[in-house]
Amino acid sequence: MDVGATKDMGKMLGGDEEKDPDAAKKEEERQEALRQEEEERKAKYAKMEAEREAMRQGIRDKYGIKKKEEREAEAQAAMEANSEGSLTRPKKAIPPGCGDEPEEEDESILDTVIKYLPGPLQDMFKK
């Protein structure tokens, strides 16, 4: 029997493999290179975003446009100023059709269910 064949079978079954003595060092160097590339990529995109934001701010200043956060902060401050003297929270607008008509309490749940039953069963419950 060939000794090399049993070695290959051992590798396939998850046995000990012949390890490259520099494999750990090479893997560490590869991981470090990947980490460095990722940092460079993040720095590049952060720089590009800073340039874009500077351009956006120039446009906002030129046309008198406020950032979304500034508008929200001003709206919140206005709401607080309106309700400053009030002890209750500000009223919310009631959508049309909600609470306009009086509720009908005359009809019970049983009557509602009976309406949806077939004819002969309705007659049986009405008696």
TrEMBL record:
One of its GO terms (cellular component) is perikaryon. GO terms for molecular function: syntaxin binding. InterPro entries: Synaphin. SUPFAM superfamilies: SNARE fusion complex. Residues 1-107 are annotated as: Disordered. It holds the Pfam family Synaphin. One of its GO terms (biological process) is synaptic vesicle exocytosis. Residues 8-74 have a biased composition (Basic and acidic residues). It comes from the Eukaryota. It is found in: Cytoplasm, Cytosol; Perikaryon; Presynapse. Keywords: Coiled coil, Cytoplasm, Exocytosis, Neurotransmitter transport, Synapse, Transport. Binds to the SNARE core complex containing SNAP25, VAMP2 and STX1A. Belongs to the complexin/synaphin family. This is Complexin-1. The lineage of its organism: Eukaryota, Metazoa, Chordata, Craniata, Vertebrata.
